[in-house]
């Protein structure tokens, strides 16, 4: 029996009136598990209007009360953690452990939103001039929107709407149509946490819904995570319509391996960071650059990756699940074939991998290439599959040149026992998030997710202090009060002094 996914508009869950039906499939067997009636233009506009109306009252709610909603929400998320992870695993194909990680990283941002009072504090300077004081307030923008991808259907929506709403905004969420049941459950729990009607809206659909959000005059800010092409479209269209936009796009993350590193730690970390989650994460390590004698470890790395076994979500021995769709699988297999044709050596080929009993699933086995060059398709394109490309360099300086020449700048790591090498790398590398003996350096929510270059379009990044700045405006007040007015008041109203006390 399939589930009918619901929108959440104006405080009501509804199947919607759209005639276009979208099927949601289980990536492990491609059977339909849910359907969506794609939102109509009128339904998206109604959601925006409802959010605009709710903003007039929500922005006046004391910050302590907004924080209490977030406290209740993070409590509910924790109480339903495994339930949300089960839904997520079934519609994305992720293993249960991976799904739980997805949910927990989102909960951490909801926890951070509970601290909103201190995050939105303004600044004050007394006597900027004689008897003149200046101080600032942080105020919300209005209606904000989020457009989120398939690969983290819990974490990435939770990057967005809790902080935006805690800041005093209202929010319209448009998640990926490929796994919409997880976001629906997140919204159900937000309603249960006591969020007022209209503060959060949930719409499901395709480009039609997205374009309404990008062009509607009442949307003040857009948050997006997804592919490069769509990210560029979101950023250009949104800014052309005079909106704030933060658009997180593609990546090609490099790991530099120095010969003085701990070999076993390098191998263990590279296995999970490269093929874990089927490579479907923007922080996956998809390129390993071996410096000097470290190249001798490549055969052992190949043997370790060869032991990785994909499987269905509730298989406790499975390391990762299928890719999200047949189209995604076809794209990964095409790039693997191109890698072979262009001269890379395929040490491990997962093109023909299947799981017994789930032969119709979107399976790609762990794959590894060596002799990869920067001109090859498998290097230049984000594969978004369980594929690791290995390169070699003679020096750290050469490795840094390779990484910095990439058009992307999302994440990178270096494995080394040398503090000097680590310092040189972190200082000279042109990438926003750097790990030192850490394979996937995603910051915790009190920092911000800071991709650079072609991995991000915008100015302020996700979560942390930068997200608070993105979702708010600063109002600065300069005030002068004349002492002569106090004397005048005292002369005409002797009890004023008592009242002032």
UniProtKB/TrEMBL annotation:
Stretches that traverse the bilayer: none
InterPro entries the UniProt entry points to: Ald_DH/histidinol_DH (IPR016161), Ald_DH_C (IPR016163), Ald_DH_CS_CYS (IPR016160), Ald_DH_N (IPR016162), Aldehyde_DH_dom (IPR015590), MeMal-semiAld_DH (IPR010061)
Xref: CDD domains: ALDH_F6_MMSDH
Pfam families linked: Aldedh
Protein name, per record: methylmalonate-semialdehyde dehydrogenase (CoA acylating)
Aldehyde dehydrogenase domain: residues covered: 18-477
Coiled coil ranges: none
Species, as recorded: Shewanella colwelliana
Family under the similarity heading: Belongs to the aldehyde dehydrogenase family.
GO MF terms held by the record: methylmalonate-semialdehyde dehydrogenase (acylating, NAD) activity
EC nos: 1.2.1.27
Keyword annotations of the record: NAD, Oxidoreductase
NCBIfam families xrefs: MMSDH
GO annotation terms (biological process): L-valine catabolic process; thymine catabolic process
UniProt keyword Calcium present: no
EC primary class: oxidoreductase
Keyword Oxidoreductase attributed: yes
